[in-house]
Design brief:
Elements: E1 2-14, E2 17-27, E3 30-35, E4 43-48, E5 53-56, E6 58-60, H1 81-92, H2 97-113, E7 116-123, H3 131-142, E8 145-152, H4 171-185, E9 197-200, H5 208-221, E10 224-229, H6 233-243, H7 247-253, E11 261-265, H8 271-280, E12 283-286, H9 288-294, H10 301-306, E13 311-313, H11 326-341, H12 348-362, E14 380-383, H13 397-403, E15 411-414, E16 417-421, E17 424-425, H14 430-445
Parallel strand pairs: 1-4, 1-5, 6-7, 7-8, 8-9, 9-10, 10-11, 11-12, 12-13
Antiparallel strand pairs: 1-2, 2-3, 5-14, 14-15, 15-16, 16-17
Helix pairs in contact: 2-3, 2-14, 4-5, 11-12
The protein binds zinc ion.
């Protein structure tokens, strides 16, 4: 007996496999079968999708969830990346465990509402201990598949970096805590709900020594490596001055040009640099909204895909993008792809492939997530197809999904469990959570009621 059957949907099983009027069955957190109308197996619970679109859950490959405590922060909304960072670091220096637990809980609910079922996170300010422990606790409480990365910064203002000393740590402390988190939480087994990655913040915020030692530690424990790379032209100038080379050369020099790594942004590398990292198997987290808000440029997604690079999507931090909807990122990736390359450059199915298969490849998890083949993790989303904004869209539910609406998920199912049902998060006490989050955000920003 299956736990759940979703019937009568347009089911995207995987890139290139779609079932119009099909069904999908779930048992013990896994996809157990799928098929055409009229062949549905019995199940404890049968849900009629009523013609809606069913896709694999979307995967978020780059985020800083804690930043939802400083969203749309007025003093720097129109600053450059470096100005924005230097204003916010002192505020983030006040973060504590309770802030991180609340921001992660709220942030993961927001992600689930936008159709995301697995998210990486990049927590790189550690003014107090055990902040990633608080994130893991929040993800477990919600039942969200989560890959937090242990971010780090060692280069403070005194050492030519951007952050104040209070949010940087020394390399030994960072590596010891990284190892502790891997031992405590990293689950390499099939169907894992929590995996840990290692993520020095960016080439300009840590030392060369820490980059190398982090890569060695990741190799030793077989975990993923993540960082920002080539997000801003100021970074090119910084790397030339500090390391005497370009950011990609630096990444190669410190032992990060491996299939274990995926980097966020990757806007400015030359054609030759793109090819080199593609050959090395490095993945890219494309962050379209963040890139456009900062306004410098965007990654050449279709070219990188042609080179064979894993390319996934990232909503990026809640204080730079200010939203965390993977549906919106997928739509924006489609718009940008076509803006760059014309109407034949990218389809909604290409964008969905980036948001699912591409993200899973970035996270090294393509065997289990990003598709709904039999045996895959039961992470799937049912999307509305009959709302006002979709009226008249009757020929192609996948194109309509990104071109028209719906923007939020009707159902989001993670590990076979409804995290969003009929458009509403199933998490108890959401109102109280939001009130507490509001109090914390106001305290951090010094904005009292
Ligand atoms: Zn980022």
């Amino acid at each position: 007996m299956n736990d759940l059957v979703i019937r009568n949907g347009h089911v995207v099983v995987d890139t290139g496999i779609e079932l119009a009027g099909g069904w999908i069955a779930v048992s013990e957190g896994r996809v157990s079968a799928y098929g055409a109308a009229g062949t549905e197996p019995p199940a404890t619970r049968v849900v009629d999708a009523d013609g809606r679109l069913v896709t694999p859950g979307l995967i978020n490959t780059h985020h800083h969830i804690y930043q939802n405590l400083t969203r749309s922060y007025a003093p720097v909304v129109n600053g450059t990346l470096f100005e924005w960072l230097t204003h916010l670091y002192p505020i983030w220096a006040r973060l504590d465990e309770e802030d991180i637990h609340l921001s992660t809980a709220v942030g993961l609910i927001e992600l689930a509402m936008g159709g995301c079922t697995t998210s990486a996170d990049h927590m790189y300010v550690h003014p107090r201990p055990n902040l990633i422990d608080a994130q893991v606790a929040a993800a477990r409480e919600l039942g969200f598949r989560f890959l937090p990365t242990r971010g780090s910064m060692t280069r403070s203002i005194e050492d030519g970096g951007l952050p104040p000393a209070v949010v940087v740590q020394d390399a030994d402390a960072i590596l010891a805590d990284s190892e502790r988190l891997i031992r405590s939480y990293h689950d390499p087994s099939p169907g894992a709900m929590i995996r840990i990655g290692l993520a020095p913040c960016s080439p300009f915020s840590v030392t060369e020594d820490l980059m190398r030692r982090t890569a060695e530690l990741a190799e030793q424990h077989d975990v993923r490596l993540h960082s920002h790379l080539a997000e801003d032209l100021d970074e090119d100038a910084f790397c030339a001055e500090t390391y005497g080379c370009r950011p990609v050369e630096y990444l190669e020099r410190v032992g990060w040009a491996t299939p274990r790594s995926w980097v966020a942004h990757f806007i400015y590398p030359s054609s030759d640099e793109q090819e080199r990292l593609a050959r090395a198997g490095v993945g890219v987290a494309h962050c379209p909204s963040s890139n456009m808000l900062i306004g410098g440029g965007t990654a050449p997604v279709m070219r990188l895909r042609e080179l064979g690079m894993p390319v996934g999507l990232g909503c990026d931090g809640s204080a730079s993008t200010d939203h965390a909807s993977l549906w919106l990122e997928t739509r924006t990736a489609l718009l940008l792809g076509r803006y760059r390359g014309g109407p034949t450059a990218m389809t909604a199915r290409d964008a969905l492939d980036v948001a699912t298969r591409g993200g899973a490849r970035c996270l090294g998890w393509e065997d289990e997530i990003g598709h709904l083949r039999v045996g895959a993790c039961a992470d799937l989303v049912v999307w509305e197809t009959s709302a006002v904004a979709l009226a008249g869209a009757v020929t192609d539910p996948v194109e309509a999904w990104l071109r028209c609406a719906p923007s939020t998920a009707f159902h989001t199912i993670i590990n076979g469990r409804f995290v969003v049902e009929d458009g509403q998060p199933t998490a108890p006490a959401l109102e109280g959570l939001l009130r507490a989050h509001d109090r914390r955000a106001r305290r951090l920003q010094g904005v009292l009621r």
